[in-house]
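Hey, can you fold this one?
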Amino acid sequence: MTRIIKKKVRVSALGQHICMSAHKARRVIDQIRGRFYEESLMILELMPYRACYPIFKLVYSAAANGIHNLGFNEARLVIIKAEVNEGTASKRLKPRARGRSYLIKRPTCHISIVLREISLDEYVYSDYLTYSKNPGLRNTNKNKNMTYDDTYSSGGLWDKK
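Sure. Predicted structure:
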């Protein structure tokens, strides 16, 4: 009896010295972490932040690496790791009054994106494991089964203070 063991192959893309603060890039990265590749591209296209464009290029590049080099299926790619680290601050001098100068620091950041091909069964099973290990993650909202009529006729969501 032979067992076939699938390796969890990952593809990545790294962008260094991107001219923006790490805090602004993290705001966008937090929205796409753990999502499918195509879904994250749609999110990045529609968000109004300046950080979306370099992150979009990195996600697209990582997926292109996986599709071209390893033959991954585009529809099954998931962002498993997305992190932003602070880079070196580029320093400039700005002239001020009376011949003085003022130091301006422009922050940079390093963004890394890691993708992995995942089957649908594996994705559902991983969700099951996170819910079973952390019962606090379950949605305990009592009004989650309310219909449109229930929301407005019973006072619904706006009745609470």
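The chain has a mean pLDDT of 81. Let me know if you want another pass with a different chain boundary.
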